[in-house]
Write a structure and sequence with these properties.
Lysozyme; 3-stranded antiparallel sheet; 31 helices; 39% helix; 11% strand
Amino acid sequence: MFFNIKIRFCFVLALGFLFSADLVDAKLSKQPFIDSEVFKVPRGLEARVNFWKDVYSKYPMSQAIVHDSNDLSIVYEVVDLGSTKLSRRARDRKTDRVKAKYRAILRKLSKSKLTSGLSSEELRVYRMVKSNFKKAARSIRVQIGQSDRFKRGIERSGLYMDEIRRIFRNQGLPEALSFLPHVESSFYIGAYSSAGAAGIWQFTRGTGRLFMKVGYDVDERRDPILSSHAAAKLLKLNYKTLKNWPLAITAYNHGLNGMRRAQRKVGNDMAKVIDKYRSRSFGFASKNFFAEFLAAVHVAQNKEKYFTNLNIAKPFKKSTVRFDDYIHIDTISKNWKLSNEEIAEYNPSLRNPVISGEKRIPMGYVFQVPAKRLSSLAALYNRIPPHEKFPGQVRSQWHTVRRGQTLSGIAVKYGTTVKKLKLYNSIGRRNQIYVGQVLTLPGKGRAARERSWRKAKPAFSISNVQTVKYRVRKKDNLTKIARRFGSNVHQLARLNGIRDMNSLRPGQWLKVPSGKISSTIQKPVTKTEPVVVAMAKPVVKAKTENFSLKVKPGRQSASQSKSGQIKLANLDLLNQKRPAFRPVSFKTSSKHESHVGWITVDFDETLSHYSEWAKVSIRSLRRHNKMSRRKSLSVSDKFVVPFDRVSADSFEEKRQEYHKAIQEDFFNNYEIKKLIVRNIKKGETLWEICNDNNSVPLWLLSSYNSEKDIHSLSVGEPIVIPLIAPNA
């Protein structure tokens, strides 16, 4: 499994007994720390901390700092990008020219022993760097300024900071730790990294699920308060293990096991750890994480000194109720007069399948709204009719296409129509499906809502409507756009020939009325996430930190263009063919009376996942597969799962939801800008390929090379690399 600057290694899988913060020494809980004593800048980190203070308070996102990655006191130039809306490619073009300029100067200085004859610029660089110019030429880096982003984070933090401080104070932890989200996310609750880290504390799924519920219907990482409880437990665990705050905070980024190795090899001095500890995954982000934190604490505590006209949000009181049943969002919307958008805003941990109505709000969920909007939620909950309360969740409805199946046969099997299957899965006129494709099946409730939406008679004519073009933005839906342009959902749908009310996607162009039209705005309709599915043919070892591609004689593919790029027109075709994981297969075991199934391990799957989905212990899974405690799973392994307590269908439903959530979240936050085809270089690793291209997830890289065994690529063999960028 490749590593990313935002990945927190699943170190806790080896420390299963530490799932709860209750195991931390009682002394830690009873003796609060004095922040000023704990978080003094260690000797040797002054230059790093000062650099990040400038990043957070001096330079906005429209400026790029060209600096030395090892000695952060060396700043060659600050480049004015002109706009924060520049694409990554345009930004890189500007900064690459500056980097090339200083690289040439440093190489010249490395070859000359005399300062005479140097230009004023070369002399300036000479005096900054002083020595080892050749190494400095290889260490030029660009950092985008963050001052405007940091200011917005300070303003947003007002909503949560008092509660977060209380959480850390109650845990006996330094309150200064509450400033850590400034480094991770600038307190933006919708923050999401390409590695799958979410929320203000940027928990990955692997770490988050040890402290919170991270599922297909609810993801508590997105809730700023619930995730703060989890962050307090994780940081407390780190400190209990390492007994050193600089290392414990760095472990939040780098992983506890990694920092334990660093501590064993180097000791507790953070400056020495940065200088002497060597690990492929201990890169620039991990080395600077503690310095970034100290800088963030300083700037946030002295915010009036660095920022003017601050408009800090005020915390609001909440009214909450714990659901004792499964409730559909339409029931809440109807009975409590809340739109889907409002429910999503007040309850950020509810994922899109719940907001769109595909899933119910689960039992045990603590629903919240501002107290000034609704009070006495418990009384309102009791008034919900019994027939609108359910004992269970709506089952996810997908079908994995198998060899020999047709759309008509699948439609008959599930009691639906070919037309609906085509509509929900964007299938063209040829009715073409492929083995391994995951089809979304129309649910009864969803189908009924769509039928009523389509049959509703609009009270207007579109024949004489003057229109302009509008490009769909992230998190847009028909309701928001209709309100923005004084229209309504039905009119927009008719103007644009929209048949599926959930089919909007960022970047899509719509016709909208150029003038206001007075009409009744219909019930809000929430956009669902793109339909994306899990991987088939997983053939890469899960642990790829030290994985080198095998060297074989290779030829350049005839399909590779001279420019090394695939035209964007081909993206839609490639995006549609992202097949599912291999389904469960069965064969009778002579050694076990139980019915066991065989699966192929897919990306991001762990023993704890299989244990949860099959409702069996990890010990039992290891026994069935003759796995020692030291052995770990690798992608493409054959693995035995006993199905005594759950059916194979139930297991695959949970498995599909897991992968679908990963990929839906990714495509809801990132888009593929273009595809690059290039040849494999000698000694190149998958980790390098993924992280050199804006942190492409390994499952995504593999999906564009599904016909290859990328566990054994040849030197010179072409590989397709998707280049990703955050959605606009």
